[in-house]
Amino acid sequence: MPVDILTPQITVLDAGGQYCHLIARKVRDLGIYAEVAASETPASNLRGRKGIIISGGPASVYDPSSPTIDPALLTSGIPVLGICYGQQLMAHALGGLVQKGDRGEYGLAQLDISNSDTILNGIEGRQQVWMSHRDVVAQAPDGFDVLASTETCAIAAISSPSRRLFAVQFHPEVAHTPCGLTILKNFLFDACGCEKDWDPARQVESVEDHIRAVAGDRNVFFFVSGGVDSTVAYTLCLKALGPERVHGTYVDTGLMREGETEFVRHNFAAIGASSFQVADAKAQFLGALSTATDPEQKRHIIGEKFVDVQQQILESEHFLDANWILGQGTIYPDTIESGGTAKADLIKTHHNRVAGIQKLIDEGRIVEPLSSFYKDEVRAIGRQLGLAPELLDRHPFPGPGLAIRCLCSETSGTPKKTADGYIIPVRSVGVQGDSRTYRSVLAIEEFPATDDVAARLINKLDQVNRVVVAVWTKAPIDEMRVQPASLTANRIALLRRADAIVRKATEESGFDAFTWQNPVILIPFGCGNDRNSLVLRPIDSVDGMTASVVRMPEELLQSLTMQLQIEGIAGVFYDLTNKPPGTIEWE
Ligand code: XMP
After folding, report:
1. Is the distance from the beta carbon of residue 230 to the nearest atom of ligand 1 less than 6 Å?
2. Element (H, E) at 558
3. What pTM was estimated for this model as a whole?
4. What is the pLDDT along the chain (587 residues), one digit of tens a residue?
5. Is 173 a catalytic residue?
6. Which atom of ligand 1 is nearest to 587's Cα?
7. Would the N or C end of the chain have less CB density within 10 A of its end CB?
C-alpha cells in the first residue's frame, strides 16, 4: 500500500470537523500526500512532516472535553495551519483570547485583507469566504499579526511567520471560498516547502507491489458486491497476482436491482476474472424476510443471512485454509473513526460478525489495497485499470438492497385529512437532531412554489417526518388505504420492475447526472387490487450524510408517471423532504 512506502508530507489533525477529510482531499488534489490523524497525536509521532493542518470542529476550546493538540507541535518548527476551531485552538494554546461571539457567522462572508503575508500572498482587497462559527479569537497571541477581518469577526486570519504558525477562521477547503486553494497552495508550497509526490492514478504499481508482498504465495478471495470499491480492489489483485490466484464470490440476495447479477458477471468477465462465481442465496434471503415488517427487523435478518451465507461459502470453498487470505475494498474514510457513514458501519458490523472473517482479520490474513485512498481517487484508479465508466460512476446502492425501499405495514389504516394535506399512516425513518424518527408521511396535492415547505410542515406536524406530493393516484387519496404488507417476493418484484422503468428513463434523459441517488420506494398504500404506490426520491448529496431534493423536469415526470401505471400500482408520489429531517432511504 502506498501509505507504507510514502511518508505523508502533511498531517491533518482531526478536531471533529465535518470538513477534515475534505482538507486532506484538497491537499492530495494539489499533488501532496496527506493523512488524517487524531488531534491529540503526539508531536513525536509527527516528526518529518513538512506541515500540520488543524481542522475545524464543533467544540469550544474552553470546554474541558474539547479536542486538543500536543502543544509541542507549536514550537517544533514545523509549519502549522489552523482552520476555524484550529485557529481558536492555536490562539488559546499560545495565550490569546477566545470567546463566544456576539452572534454566529454561518455561510458566506466578505473578508477584508489588510496584510497579504505568506498564506494570503497574491490575495488582496475584499474576498468571499465561507464561515461556520460562533466562538471567535478576540485577541491574537503575542507576536501574531492580524491579516484579515470580516464584519462579524475582527480576527479572521493571523500569522506569526517567524514561528511558521498560520491560522484562518474561515474554511479555505470549501468551494464557497474561491481564494481557498491559493491559501492552501501558499501554505503547502511556500510555508512548508512541500514537493509534489502524489497522483492517485500513478499509485497502481506500488499498490500491486504491496498486494504481492502481503499475499506472498497465498491466494486471495473476495466477497464482491458489484460496487466501485470492491470491484477496483478485486481488479488490482487480479492484475497483481493473476486470475488463477484471485477468487471472487458475489452473493445474489434476490434484493438487487434488475440486471445487477448480469452486470456484475459481465464486468468481471471483461476484466478477465476467470475464478468468479455467483452464489445464489435468493431463496434463503427471501424465505427469512417473507414475514418481516419492521425496518430494524429487516436489517437484522439481512445481516444474519449474510453471516450464514458467507460462513457456508468460507467452509465449502476451504477459504479458511492457510493458503488463502481475504481481500476487501475498504477505502480510507472507512479506516478512521471520524470517517464513513453510520450506515456503512452497520453493514460492516454484519460482515465482521462472520466468525471466519473475524478470525482472518485477527490473524492479519487480509489485504486492503485501497485503504489509503478516497472515493474519487478509487475512481481514478478504476479508470486507469480500464474499468467501464458505467461501473465507476454509478449511484451508490445500499447493501441491504431493495429490502429497505420496500415499505411494510403490520396494520391497516386510512389517510387523515388535515388543513395541510393527508397524513398517510405509512411510517418511514427520518433523522432530526441526532436522533432517528419513525413517523407517518404527509401527502400534499401540488408541488409548492418554494422549496422549504416540507421542512415547515414537518416542524409544524409532530406526527410526520416526510412530505410527498401526489403526482398521480388511481382514486382520490381519501378512498385509498394502507393494508398489511410484508417483504414478499411479489412486492420486491414489483418494486424491481418500477425501479428499472425509472432507471431507464432517468438515464436516457440525462437526469441521472443531476442526482447522487435516485431511490424508488414501494409503499403499501393503494385501492382495490392495486395495493401499492410508488415514491420517487431523487436527491443530490456529497457523501450521503445530508441530501437535498432534486426536482425532475415536468415532462420527464409526466412521461415516467404514465409508464409507472402498471398492474398493482395505485399512485405515484414525489418526496420533497431533504435530509435532515428525512433520511435518503425510507426503510
Ligand atoms: P440514509 O437513509 O441514512 O442513507 O440517509 C445514507 C446513505 O447510506 C446508504 N445506505 C446504506 N449503504 N449499507 C450501505 O452500504 C446500508 O445498510 C445502508 N443504508 C443506507 C443510502 O443508500 C444512502 O446513500
Report:
1. no
2. helix 554-563
3. 0.79
4. 444 557 899 999 999 876 788 899 899 999 999 999 999 999 999 999 999 999 988 889 998 889 999 999 999 999 999 999 999 999 999 999 999 988 778 788 999 999 999 999 999 999 999 988 889 999 999 999 999 999 999 999 999 999 999 999 999 998 889 999 999 999 999 999 999 999 877 789 889 999 999 999 999 999 999 999 999 999 999 999 999 999 999 999 999 999 999 999 999 999 889 889 999 999 999 999 999 999 999 999 999 999 899 999 999 999 999 999 999 999 887 776 433 333 333 433 444 457 888 888 889 899 999 988 888 889 999 999 999 998 999 999 999 999 999 999 999 999 999 999 999 999 999 987 667 899 999 999 999 998 889 999 999 999 999 999 999 999 999 999 999 999 999 999 999 999 999 999 999 999 999 999 999 999 999 999 999 999 999 999 887 888 999 999 999 999 999 999 999 999 999 999 999 899 999 99
5. yes
6. 2
7. N
Ligand 1 near 583 CB (within 6 A): yes
Alpha carbon distance 428, 242 (integer Å): 46
Please tell me the chain's helix, strand, coil percentages from 3-state DSSP, rounded to the nearest 5: 35, 25, 35
Three-class SS of residue 15?
A: coil
582 CA closest ligand 1 atom index: 5
Instruction: Locate all alpha helices (DSSP H) within 75-227, ordered by sequence.
Output: 85-93, 180-185, 204-215
Cα separation, 520 vs 535, whole angstroms: 6
Half-sphere exposure (Cβ direction) of 337: Cα atoms closer than 13 Å: 8
* Closest to 424 (Cα-Cα) out of 410, 437, 412: 412
Distances (CA, A) of 149 to 101, 111, 116: 14, 6, 12
| 447 and 469 Cβ atoms separated by less than 8 Å | yes
Look up residue 23 and give its three cell numbers.
482538507
Cα–Cα distance, 246 to 222 (Å, whole number): 8
Query: Is 296 among the catalytic positions?
Result: no
Q: What residue owns the CA closest to ligand 1's atom 14?
A: 398
What number of other Cβ atoms are within 10 A of residue 463's Cβ?
A: 13
Q: What is the dihedral of CA 85, 91, 95, 97, to 10 degrees?
A: -70
Q: State the burial class of residue 282 (Cβ atoms within 10 Å of its Cβ: 0-12, 13-18, 19+).
A: middle
Q: Indicate whether residue 400 lines ligand 1 (CB < 6 A).
A: yes
- What is 417-473 written as a DSSP string? EETTEEEEEEEEEEEETTEEEEEEEEEESS--SSTTHHHHHHHH-TTEEEEEEEEEE
Active-site position among 21, 35, 84, 406: 84
415-448 as b/e, with b when 16 or more CB fall inside 10 Å? beeeebbbbbbbbbbbbeeeeebebbbbbbeeee
